[in-house]
Fold this protein.
Amino acid sequence: MNLTAVIMAGGKGERFWPKSRTRLPKQFLNISGQKSMIQQTTERLSKLLDISRIFVVTNEMYAELIRIQIPHLPKENLIIEPVGRDTAPCVGLAALIIEQKYPDSIMVVLPSDHIIDKKDQFIDIIETAARKAQSGPFLVTLGITPTYPETGYGYIESSLEVEEHQEIEIHRVKQFVEKPDKETAESYVQKGHFFWNSGIFIWRTAVIRSYIQQLMPEVHEVLQSMKIAISEGNKSTASIVQAEFKRMPSQSIDYGIMEKAPHIFVIPYDHGWDDVGSWTALERINDTDENGNVMKGNHILSVDTKRCIIEGNGKLIATLGIEDLIVIDTEDVTLICTKEKAQDIKSLLKELRNQKMDKYL
């Protein structure tokens, strides 16, 4: 198959503050293992395709980090967005560039900051999704089988129409649904045909370009202007592409395409996935001690401490009689919050901005 991959690496990972910062966000950190998350993502894809077929979309601030962490990535495969415009323009620009270099290709689009335990099973499912995408005007996504009623994810509802390819099920999608409240999330888990939206997509490049033309004409118009500039290939091409990109509306690929297009399929995935969306993810990807704590770093002294997440940075952290807290110490910031509020860390960053304390962001 004529496979390519697009890694989206422009996010700031704000819910992983204070370790994830504006200039060194989550995808460039070693959250699990000895390599950064984007290095692990690239390594995972290398089992499927050559590095020459892997593209990374990011912004200028992170371009040098990518060059350092993925030095073997071809220079022309690093796609720089001049401004953030969410995932639809990101995917559209990548599709336009890939279409020029690899006609009749299939794109695997995925975030840069996911943890996937069982790499072989992941590759098998991606290959199955690619074969499905190759067979028609189909958009395929991976849906994570929920293990608890998560309210921080969007969900995918599948229909009863199921086909099987080498023991891997492919479900037709009934609808995408927004992040639910706890009661609704509990009902989704009980029903069994709802999946977490992984943000991993597989489709033919020409098909996603066609859907953008049909469903997002304002994005398509800008892409066509870019296409003319790229085909001319003169000295002003890069500046024209960047100027045109700024005209893009800000919209997600989920809202712009996936919630509206026909012929969408989801493949259930239950082989160890985590998007490490907040500090509570450390409980899922690390072993806990006999009291349910996750302790990372040296010099942590805990007495009568239960179900806490504590990460040190060198100095002694001593805890006594606390439960269900997150304590993260960095060189210049110490975060203390309840696990219940882990999804709301962005509110702290908003307050930092309000108080003009940007040096801590």
Q: What stands out?
A: The chain has a mean pLDDT of 94. Residues 281-360 form one domain. The chain has two domains: 3-274, 281-360.
